[in-house]
Amino acid sequence: MEHKSYFSYPITQHFPFRWFTPVAVIGGIVFIALFTLMNFASSSYELIVQNSLDPNTTVSREEKKVSESFRRLLTYHRNILQNCSVHSVEIDFDSLDRAGKQIGFCEWGALLRSYVSCKIDTPAGEVFFNMTQTYDYVPETVSFDSLGKFLGTGFLSRNKTTQASLRWGESLMSTFWGEVTLMLQD
Question: Does residue 178 register a pLDDT over 70?
Answer without folding.
Answer: yes
